[in-house]
UniProtKB/TrEMBL annotation:
PROSITE patterns attached to this UniProt entry: IDH_IMDH (PS00470)
Cofactors named for this entry: Mg(2+); Mn(2+)
One Pfam family hit: Iso_dh
Organism: Williamsia maris
Positions of the Isopropylmalate dehydrogenase-like domain: 3-356
Domain of life: Bacteria
SMART domains, A to Z: Iso_dh (SM01329)
Identification of the protein by name: Isocitrate/isopropylmalate dehydrogenase
Length: 361
């Protein structure tokens, strides 16, 4: 039997996960779910945002569904540790990044679909492990980094202790696998165009490597149109003519920005789902954060989590059930009578989810 590790997390995470889980029963897949802890509460209690028991659960499950995670800056994070752990050098690290790295989940898949009509339907694929978010971010530079940037006018004026450098990591192996993922997803989804969104006219060395590998992988897929475009131009076109895209693939930071822009084009983060795939297992999460300002009020939009469950169904071999979930959410959004305040309605989290279950029959 397929087993899903369910990690509700923080803030509105438990609310939207509780509302969305009945979808699995409504479509009749018969999967088992096991709950685990993750996030800020674990950090405050034991100084680990992912307890060892949760890692064990994730390792034995077929996939992981996560609600939302709270993150705070280092000073605030340490201040909320138990007294006996403060001053011990513990540093809060993003559980999502830890999960992606440990499980090798190098691709973040973000569907961008017009739920109010049928004008656009495309996918943003964000590379998860490299790019500007790879973690090579330094303040107070050693000799090697200072030799690279020390002659910049700003660095000369500021000195090495007040100069910071972030490095964009691009590797052939990392690029090849994310581009293969993009073209494979295009073929599987019936898309005829893959666009690499980058900035090769400015980031000349790393951008040229990306473009070379993109062209090489594109040559393996002559049936798909391949196009490289500046990321700022892609952003503008996403707003003006989103129907012109099929699959957009980008490095970590550019993909992060474009996928959130796509959520805005859809109608908001309350409609945005995501999947992290590519290694051992898979991780599914709504794109929105933990939203502590509305946590506990029962007004969080559950549709992003429900669509995430739908995406999980497709990834785990239940495409018909996935299509039913997407259709039910689309009907609920278009009807508009039972939607949460972020979509202009007055419904509660529970009532909005129940409306989708009702439409599933």
């Amino acid at each position: 039997m397929t087993t899903i590790a369910v990690l509700p997390g923080d803030g509105i995470g438990p609310e939207v996960v509780e509302a969305a889980l009945p979808i699995l029963d409504a479509v009749g897949v018969g999967w088992a779910v096991e709950f685990g802890e993750i996030g800020w509460g674990c950090w405050r209690r034991e100084g680990e945002p992912i307890p060892s028991a949760t890692w064990d659960l994730i390792e034995r499950a077929d996939a992981t569904l996560m609600g939302a995670i709270t993150s705070k800056p280092p000073r605030e994070a340490e201040a909320e540790l138990p007294a006996d752990l403060q001053g011990t050098g513990r540093r809060y690290a993003s559980p999502v990044i830890a999960l992606r790295r440990r499980l090798g989940l190098y691709a973040n898949i973000r569907p961008i679909t017009d739920l109010y009509g049928a004008d656009f339907d495309f996918v943003v694929i964000r590379e998860n492990t490299e790019g500007l978010y790879a973690g090579y971010d330094y303040r107070g530079l050693d000799d090697d980094l200072w030799n690279l940037v020390g002659d910049h006018p700003g660095a000369v004026e500021s000195g090495r202790d007040d100069t910071a450098v972030a490095l964009r990591l691009q590797t052939r192996s990392g690029l090849d696998r994310i581009f293969r993922c993009a073209f494979d997803r295009a073929a599987a989804g019936g898309f005829t165009r893959v666009t690499l969104a980058d900035k090769p006219n400015v980031l000349r060395a790393s951008g040229e490597l990306a473009r070379e590998r993109f062209d090489a992988i594109a040559a393996e897929h002559p049936e798909v149109e391949a196009h490289t475009a500046n990321v700022d131009a892609v952003a503008m076109q996403m707003v003006r003519s989103p129907e012109s895209f099929g699959v957009i693939v980008a490095e970590n930071m550019f993909g992060d920005i474009l996928s959130d822009l796509g959520a805005g084009v859809m109608g908001g983060l309350g409609l945005a789902s995501s999947a992290n795939v590519g290694g051992r297992g898979s991780l599914f999460e709504p794109v929105h954060g933990s939203a502590p300002d509305i946590a506990g009020r029962g007004v969080a939009n559950p549709f992003a989590t429900i669509l995430t469950v739908g995406q999980m169904l497709a990834e785990l071999g239940a495409p018909d059930e996935s299509a039913r979930v997407r259709a039910a959410v689309r009907e609920a959004v278009q009807h508009g009578a039972v939607v949460t305040p972020d979509l202009g309605g007055t419904a509660s989290t529970a009532d909005a989810a129940a409306e989708v279950v009702r439409r599933l029959g």
